[in-house]
Amino acid sequence: MRGRSLFLAYLLALLASLAVAAKPVAAQSMLRDAETEQLLKDMLAPLVEASELEPGNVEVVLINDPSINAFVAGGQVIYVHTGLIEAATSANEVQGVLAHELGHITAGHAVRFDERIKAANGISILSLLLGVGAVLAGAGEAGMGVIAAGQQAAMGSFLSFNRDQEAATDLAGVRYLSGAGISGKGMIAFFEKLRGNEIRSGYSQADEAAYSRTHPLTGDRIQVLRGLLDDSPSWDAVPDAGLQERFVRAKAKLSGYLSEPRRTLNAFPLRDKSIPAHYARAYAYHKDARVDLALAETDALLAAEPDNPWFLELKGQVLLESGRPRDALVPLRRAVELTLAHPLIAGMLGHALIATEDPANFPEAENVLRASVQRDRYNPFAWYQLGVVYEARGDMPRARLASAEQQVMNRLYPQALQNAQAAEAGLPYGSPDWIRAQDVALEARAELERVRKKR
Ligand SMILES: [Zn+2]
C-alpha cells in the first residue's frame, strides 16, 4: 500500500499546490476502473523492478482522451491516454511504451511543475468512474466530479522532449525491458505504427501525432532502438499470454464504455461469442439503456467465469444504474469479497446499499464506504455517498466533513471551507476526524487565498 499512499500524498500535494481558477481550456478526464488500473499496474511492475526505482512507487493514471499519448509530468506517475490503449494491439506494445516512460522518470526528465504551470493554466481534469452513472452517483450535486488533479496531466498536450533526452530514455527503456525479460518487439511495432501513421481509422491526424509530438520519433531513432532491442536476449521472449488476454478484455471494455453503442455493436457483432465481445456489448447496451440485453451479456460473461470480480462488478453496476439496487447487492458483495474490498468496487456497493433506501442497509454502507475512502481517498463519489449515510443517521459534523472532502476535490473551495469549519466545530476535540476537518479547512483557505492574491 506504500505506493498508493505515496501517490495519494502526491495528489494531495497537487491539490494543495493548484489553485488555477481560470476556466478550463480543455478539460481532461481521469478514468477510473478497477480492472484496468490493476492491469496497468501488473504490466508496469516487472519494469519498475528492473529499474532503479522502488517497486510500487510508480503509478499509472488513465486519462480519457482519444489521442494517442503517454507521458510523465512531475512525480512518479505515468499518464496513459485511452487512445493509446485503443491503438495498441498487444499488452507487449503498451509495455514498450511504459518502459520508455519509466526511462523519463528515472532520468528526471519530468518537468518541474512550477516551470510549466503557466502554460498549463486553466486546464483541469474531470474524474470519471468507468461505470457509476454520474447522476445516480450524486455527481450532479458533486459538481460533476471535477477534480483538481490535472494541470500535470494536461501537460501532455505541449510537453516535448529533445533528441538527447529521447536517446537516453531509449537506452533506459531497453534496459528495463531486457531486465524484465520482456520482448522489445511491441515497442518497435508501436513506434513504427505511429511513425507510419498506420493506426486504424477513427483517429484524426492530430490524435495520431500526439505521441510523436511529445516524444519525437525519427526514423534514425527507431533504427537505433531496434538494434539495441534485438541484441537483447529477451527479444524472442514469448509474450505473457495472461496479460495479453486481460489486455484484450480491458480494451474491449473501454471501447464499449467510450464508443457510440452502434459503433461497438459493429465492431463486436452478435455472432462473436468471445469474452471481449460480450464485454463490449454489455457496455454498449447499458449505455443505450437496453437493460435486458446488457444483463444477458453480463450473464454470458458470468456463465463462463462465475467468480470473475470485474464481471460481477459490471452486473451490479447495470442493476444499480437501472434502478434495481437491491438486486445489485448480491454481485457487488461478492465482487468486494473477491477483490479484498477494492476501494472502487466497495464504493459502488456502498452506493447500492444507500440506493435501497432501507435504513437497515446503512450501517453496512457506512462500513464499506469508510473502508473505501481510507484506502483510496481520491474518490469524490464515495465521499458523497458517505455524506448521505452520515446525514441519514443524524451525524451532521461527519456529514459536513464528507461534503468538505468531496468539495475540496471538486475545487469548490468556499463550500469546502464552510463545511470543514462546521465539521470542526461539531467533532470531538482532537479526534482524527477533527484533525482532518482542520486540514481540509486549511487547504481550502490556502486555495482561496491564492486566488485572491492573483486578482
Ligand atoms: Zn520519450
How would you characterize this protein structure?
By secondary structure, the protein is mainly α. It has a domain at 2-241. 63% of the residues lie in helices and 6% in strands. It is built from 22 helices and six strands. It has helices at 2-17, 34-50, 82-87, 91-106, 113-120, 151-154, 163-179, 185-195, 205-214, 219-231, 241-258, 261-267, 275-287, 291-304, 309-321, 325-338, 343-355, 362-375, 380-392, 396-409, 413-426, 432-454, and strands at residues 28-32, 59-64, 70-72, 77-81, 125-129, 146-147. The protein has a six-stranded mixed β-sheet with strand order 3-4-2-1-5-6. A hairpin with a 4-residue loop joins strand 3 and strand 4. The protein is globular and about 65 Å long. Residues 1-26 and 112-158 have low confidence and may be disordered. The structure holds zinc ion. The site of zinc ion has 6 residues, from helix 4 and helix 7. Residues 100, 104, 161, 166, 169, 215 line the site of zinc ion.
Q: Quick one: overall form?
A: globular
Distance between the termini: 41 Å
Number of helical segments? 22
**Which sheet architecture does the biggest sheet show?**
6 strands, mixed
- Strand residue content: 5-15%
Number of strands: 6
Task: Give helix and strand order, one letter per element, not per position.
Answer: HEHEEEHHHEEHHHHHHHHHHHHHHHHH
> Helicity level, as a percent range?
55-70%
Q: What's the overall average pLDDT, rounded?
A: 81
Structural class: mainly alpha
What does the radius of gyration come to?
A: 22 Å
Question: Runs with pLDDT <50, length 5+?
Answer: 1-26, 112-158
Spatial arrangement of strands, main beta sheet: 3-4-2-1-5-6
